[in-house]
Amino acid sequence: MSPEEIKAKADRAEGKKPAKPQGAGGRPPSYKAPFAKQAEKLCALGATDEDLADFFEVNVRTISRWKVQHEEFCQALKAGKTEADDRVERALYQKAVGYEQDAVKIFMPAGAAEPVYAEYREKMAPDTTACIFWLKNRRKDEWRDKLDHEHSGKVDLAPTLIYENVPGQPRKDDGH
Q: How far apart are CA 49 and CA 65, in angstroms?
């Protein structure tokens, strides 16, 4: 990095605006074509727009601007985020229905010089919360919490006034 670039970066960190040379029509574009592939890989690993801004050393608004101005960047983000979402969906499904995985237990028998490694197949029971979440999102009509109530019949909105114990009027129970 040249001394000018270092000074400009330090000035930006302090919130100072860099001095513009005469005739400059704004800052040069910072987007580069390889950013699309890098962003896609980062999004596939679960990166957010804030994470991308940190990685590319720009403001989050710049990431939003790049999505509008560079179609390949926008599509790369969508593809990467879809890949991450698909992975989470598969994991949620596996948690909902239960699964098996390879595991190892390590034992240290009394008097043994080395530990004993025992490989086995671990069974993970289905998770009720994951089941409910999955069904509420996939079968909304059968599993949603909201109930629809239907009312039938006639509703009479005519006011009914009942005056009891009005000051200056005889009371009903005093015989007048």
A: 11
